[in-house]
Write a structure and sequence with these properties.
The protein is of the alpha/beta class. The protein has two domains: about 90-255, Alanine racemase (TIM Barrel, Alpha-Beta Barrel), CATH 3.20.20.10; about 260-375, Lyase, Ornithine Decarboxylase, Chain A, domain 1 (Beta Barrel). Helix content is about 30%, strand content about 25%. The protein has helices at about 5-10, 25-35, 50-60, 70-75, 95-105, 115-125, 150-165, 185-200, 225-240, 255-260; strands at about 20, 40-45, 65, 85-90, 110, 130, 140, 170-175, 180, 210, 250, 260-275, 280-285, 305, 315-320, 330-340, 345-350, 370-375. Strands 1, 12, 13, 14, 15, 16, 17 and 18 form an eight-stranded mixed sheet that branches. β3, α4 (about 70-75) and β4 form a beta-alpha-beta unit. α2 (about 25-35) runs parallel beside α9. The structure holds pyridoxal-5'-phosphate.
Length: about 375
């Protein structure tokens, strides 16, 4: 916890769980990415945390932005960033949203199909398109495998289709899976990208750009390599597969930009057992899967917990949220160790919650308000 967050929480008076994000940490993360791959433009993946103060701080540092919707595009433009700093990176867009983005000045669009290329050709003539390829997500804790991207063998055809329809066939993108802990995970996708560059060159189409996507991790329970290690491994792969003709590159960190910048303060609502013989305590917090901790789905992301009684003897607990949906259990298959002295009313700090929390919070399920967010 940073001193600024500690001081903020000490004086906070409102009730209910909240996220607090320290902008200084976001700024430090941005600079680490910029230094790790100095020739690579950073496009912050807005979905990780679209708070206006975060977008503004990144705009001031010179970041560009990966947007998934016209809503996110509007948020970025509201910071004063020009549309030339926006990539419309969702491969699934309504044609009228493409048109609207194009009218706002956006010129860079993701595709992974002929059908999406045709939409863009109709309403965004001359725009640049890059084709996303499938990536298996091995080594990632939150894989994004099947939904996005086409087989690498199809990408050159998709890009050629774009070229024939008057678009600028611009490059290739992929995402190696979120919370990717293997620094070498980019190598296979970069080999595929280089093959697509060659296939297009044979057809007289010269691609310019490789979009390295996101995947850079945040420290949860275990240490993760720093941005610099990722930069070195990615640069070595670029050299290996592209030789001296390294293309323009961009990256889209989301989790790695904001994850460690924020934490959640929550309160213990109930500690109980299911029978007198059962030793397992159920600990219910005032936040759960529907209050912003959606990434505990399948117990994929395991957040570090801090209690005021750390150091006391511990025992395993099931950790659950406050809502009346029985799916609102965060950790049960692998319980969490919590102090035996933990009491109802204690405040728990959930660390590394700056990414993928606020916008995953339900609007009013069971009458609980959306997660409060403070960016300081
Ligand atoms: C979500 C997303 C990202 C960010 O991924 P992280 O793993 O959070 O860094 C980047 N690019 C695209 C296209 C995405 O959908």
């Amino acid at each position: 916890m940073t001193d600024r967050i500690r001081e903020f929480l000490r004086t906070r008076r409102e009730d209910g769980p909240c996220v607090v994000v320290d902008l200084d940490v976001v700024r430090t993360n941005y600079l680490s990415f910029a230094r790790a791959l100095p020739d690579t433009r950073v496009f912050y993946a807005v979905k990780a945390n679209p708070d206006a103060a975060i977008l503004t701080a990144l705009e001031e540092l010179g970041s560009s932005f990966d947007c998934a919707s016209t809503g996110e595009i509007d948020m970025v433009l509201a910071t004063g960033a020009g549309a030339d700093r926006i990539s419309f990176g969702n491969t699934i867009k309504k044609e009228r949203d493409i048109e609207r983005a194009f009218k706002l000045g956006v010129r860079l669009f993701a595709v992974d199909s002929y059908e999406e290329v045709e939409k863009i050709a109709r309403v965004a003539p001359g725009a640049k398109v890059f084709c996303r390829i499938l990536c298996d997500g091995a080594g990632a804790e939150w894989p994004l495998s099947r939904k996005f991207g086409c087989e690498p063998e199809m990408a050159a055809d998709v890009l050629e289709h774009a070229h024939r329809l008057g678009l600028a066939a611009y490059g290739v993108s992929f995402h190696v899976g979120s919370q990717q802990k293997n620094v070498h995970a980019w190598d296979g996708a970069l080999a595929s990208a280089a093959a697509i560059f060659r296939a297009c060159a044979e057809r007289g189409i010269s691609l310019s750009m490789v979009n390295l996507g996101g995947g850079f991790p945040t420290r949860y329970l275990q240490d993760v390599p720093g941005a610099i290690s990722y930069g070195e491994a990615i640069f070595a792969s670029l050299r290996r597969h592209f030789g001296n003709a390294i293309p323009e590159t961009i990256m889209e960190p989301g989790r790695g930009m904001v994850g460690n910048a924020g934490l959640i303060e929550t309160e213990v609502v109930l500690i109980s057992k299911k029978s007198e013989q059962d030793a397992m305590r159920w600990v219910y917090l005032d936040i759960g899967k529907f209050g912003g901790l959606a990434e505990t789905m399948d117990e994929a992301i395991r957040y570090p917990l801090r209690t005021p009684r750390d150091g006391d003897d511990t025992a395993p607990c099931v950790l659950a949220g406050p809502t009346c949906d029985s799916a609102d259990v965060m950790y049960e298959k692998t319980p969490v160790e919590l102090p035996l002295s933990l009491s109802i009313g204690d405040k728990i700090i959930i660390e590394a919650c700056g990414a993928y929390t606020t916008t995953y919070s339900a609007v009013a399920f069971n009458g609980f308000p959306p997660l409060k967010s403070y960016v300081i």
